[in-house]
Structures are given as C-alpha cells and as structure tokens.
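Example A, followed by Example B.
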Amino acid sequence: MNVQHQTVAIETGLGDTLTDITGQVRDLVKQSGVQSGVCILVVPHTTAAITINSGLDPSTPQDIVADVRRLVPTRTDFHHIVDTPSDAAAHIKASLVGASEIVLIEDGDLVFGHSQSLLFFDFDGPRQRRVMVKIIEG
C-alpha cells in the first residue's frame, strides 16, 4: 500500500483570509503516483480551517469571509481571551468551519464537482501556516 505524508505551506495575509490551495494539493497527488485512493487534509492550527466550496467565481471567498465575520464578530465579551478578542473569535470561526477534509482520488487526480475547490481559512493572520496532506492508495 502506498501511503505518503506531505505538507502544504501557506503564508497568509492580515486578518481573516481565504486561500485556494487546490493546485498545490493536486500537484502533490500527481507527484505521489497514486491513481486511486483518498487524500486527507488536516489543519494543525486552532485559528485556521479548511473547507470545500466554489472556486469559479473570484468573489465567492470575499462573500464567505464577510459572512463568517458577520456570524462571529470580534468582541470583548468572550470568556476565553488569554490572547486577544480576535484570537477568541478565530477559535470559534475555526471550530465552525472545521479542521479536515477528505477528497477521493481517481485517475491520479482529486475528484471534485464542477466548481469545487479546497479553500484554506486563516482567521488570525498574517501567519505562516500549513496543511498536512496524507495520500493513501486503495
């Protein structure tokens, strides 16, 4: 069984950002030589997350980030504010979006719907971030 562990490095901008990492992950899958299997992606940060959503319209990330900010605004009445109120808000945002995704691999490529992409959220940038990628044949 072919199992590979890789890392995608991401440098994020200030505040809440959304970065399309589909191309980077797709390159890792192609380099792996795996024709059929699964790609597991894990974000090892408490203020970052990953999701699958539309990558066709460049305005989609802007709308998603704006509404996540609307749902969880930065405020000073959080109970856990060891760092800053924006850090507390980032923990909640990351929990709502999630820290992992699983994508099928067929014919040596990621299997997505027509407009789907892998989108990495950073809710506490700027930072050096990473996504752990496990590619498993089978």
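Example B, a separate protein, is given below in the same form.
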Amino acid sequence: MGWARSLAHLLFICYHENGFRRKVVVNMRCEVEVVIRNRLGLHARPASRFAQVAGGFESEIWLMRDGKAVDGKSILEILTIACPKGSVLTVRAEGADSQDAVRSLKRLVENRFGEID
C-alpha cells in the first residue's frame, strides 16, 4: 500500500496438547499521516466523530502528534493533543482489521469529518 506502511508480526502459534497446530494469530500494524484541514482544527465534534469511527474496529488505534500518542477511541485523549488547522498527525492501528481502520480514518480526516468549512 503506497499510502500506509504495513507490517505483519507473527505473534504466536497455538498448539493443542497433542501438538497439532490449531490457529495462527497474526497482528497487523498500519499507519498513515494525515493533515487536519478543518478551519477550527480537531475540536470536540470532529474528535467525537473520530473516536466513534475508531470504536467500530477491533484494532487498537492511536493518534500521534509531536511524539505524543493517545487512544484514538477516546474523545478526551484526542482533545489533549490540541490539533489546529494544518496539524500533521499519524494514525496508527494494530490488529486484524488495521488496514480497514486506517483507510476509514484517513478518509474521515480528508473529508474534514463531514464538516463544511
């Protein structure tokens, strides 16, 4: 994927007591950089929308700015990174549906969280 870096990590292989392989658990990690284009930046309404969309995925989701990472499913944590218009953020997801999560959240930010400026 050109817009997102993806790295698969093999976490572990589960075995039955008799030694037969039962299941392989793979953890995917994806991230993408986005730019906040809303006139008022990432205020309460867009933070709520971001957390709502992020909450629809099983993956753990982080939003990062200037070295600080916050839980992308928490409105309050998102608001703590204070993102005015023009802020560059990294959206990172880790889990089975990480690619879909990053793709959806990137689209949400690019569409200005559905707000009309």
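On Example B: The first helix runs from residue 44 to 54.
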